[in-house]
């Protein structure tokens, strides 16, 4: 019996606290990107879950009275891990099954290619040189369960939310534990930013920033995590980000439109779905 594959897009732009801009983006996703995701899932035998408010009422995982912004949008980064946990706990997903997750601002350029799931956790280092959670595969098992529990740990959140960590591009210590990707950085001992591409650093930057809060041993990460090239999470392209013919300051790991498999319109970029649907039939 083949393992189940579930493709989840966490569409959190139409909730009670959404702004007008959020709702406009939700409309763009529904008009241009939703059907493409569904077509991809049919092609590659994924069950498709579009996790909007009708499917998954977004709970407040963590609440900080002094940080109302966190209790709204930033909370959503952690909330998706509760959805993953629910699907495992209720028996919908079993060991060896695969969760493919895309942010709503990810456009599938190459409909033929499938993100591998040889290891338990697969994602790309993006153009901005981050271990990026915009698109990933998570295979249900011990590593996934540990990662999910870490993301949802109130004790760990309370411990780290008010701690500062060194960030190279800020040239100093900053509050950092405000999203799931940042939580992973601390757990995996990844330096909070690097101007040198992570794929050029030893072990992709794992354990490059050692603190008492590392949760994964180096051998555990190397055994269970597969890092894909930037073509699997292209967040910057010359001519689409940056200005005056120059690259954006955080366009660190370069790609081209022709090579791009997944285009991730992260960081407030315009969602060019309409144009991309014309470019990628």
| H-E order | EHEHEEEEHHEEHHEEH
Number of strands: 10
**Low-confidence runs of at least 5 consecutive residues:** none
How large a portion of the residues is in β-strands, by DSSP E? 15-25%
With strands numbered from the N-terminus, the spatial order across the biggest sheet is 2-1-3-6-5-9
CA-atom Rg in angstroms: 18 Å
Mean pLDDT: 91
CATH-defined architecture: Alpha-Beta Complex
Domain module tally: 1
Q: What spatial form do the alpha-carbon principal axes imply?
A: globular
Number of helices: 7
Note the main sheet.
6 strands, mixed
Tell me roughly what share of residues is in helical segments.
Answer: 25-40%
Identify the quaternary structure here.
Answer: single chain
SSE class: alpha/beta
| CATH fold assignment | Spore Coat Polysaccharide Biosynthesis Protein SpsA, Chain A
First-residue to last-residue Cα separation: 33 Å
CATH class: Alpha Beta
Topology:
Blueprint: E1 5-9, H1 20-44, E2 47-50, H2 68-89, E3 98-102, E4 106-108, E5 121-125, E6 131-139, H3 142-151, H4 154-160, E7 164-167, E8 172-175, H5 180-188, H6 218-224, E9 225-228, E10 262-264, H7 273-279
Helix pairs in contact: 2-3
Summarize the structure.
With 281 residues, the chain is α/β, with parallel strands linked by helices.
């Amino acid at each position: 019996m083949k393992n189940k594959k579930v493709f989840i897009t966490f569409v959190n732009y139409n909730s009670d606290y959404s702004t007008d801009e959020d709702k406009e983006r939700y409309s763009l996703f529904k008009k241009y990107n939703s059907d493409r995701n569904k077509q991809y899932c049919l092609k590659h035998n994924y069950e498709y879950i579009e996790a909007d408010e009708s499917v998954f009422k977004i709970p407040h995982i963590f609440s900080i009275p002094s940080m109302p912004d966190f209790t709204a949008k930033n909370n959503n980064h952690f909330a998706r891990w509760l959805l993953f946990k629910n699907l495992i706990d209720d028996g919908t997903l079993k060991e060896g099954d695969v969760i493919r997750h895309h942010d709503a601002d990810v456009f599938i350029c190459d409909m033929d290619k499938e993100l591998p799931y040889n290891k338990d956790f697969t994602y790309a280092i993006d153009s901005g040189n981050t271990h990026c959670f915009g698109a990933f595969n998570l295979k249900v098992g011990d590593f996934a369960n540990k990662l999910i529990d870490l993301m949802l740990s109130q004790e760990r959140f309370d411990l780290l939310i008010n701690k500062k960590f060194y960030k190279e591009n800020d040239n100093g210590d900053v509050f950092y534990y405000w999203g799931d990707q940042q939580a992973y950085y601390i757990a995996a001992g990844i330096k909070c930013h690097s101007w040198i591409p992570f794929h050029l650093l030893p072990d992709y930057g794992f354990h490059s920033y050692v603190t008492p809060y590392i949760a994964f041993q180096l051998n555990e990460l190397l055994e269970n995590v597969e890092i894909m090239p930037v073509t699997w999470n292209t967040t910057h392209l010359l001519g689409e980000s940056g200005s005056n013919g120059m690259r954006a300051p955080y366009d660190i790991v370069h790609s081209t439109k022709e090579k791009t498999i997944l285009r991730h319109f992260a960081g407030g970029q315009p969602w060019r779905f309409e144009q991309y649907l014309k470019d990628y039939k």
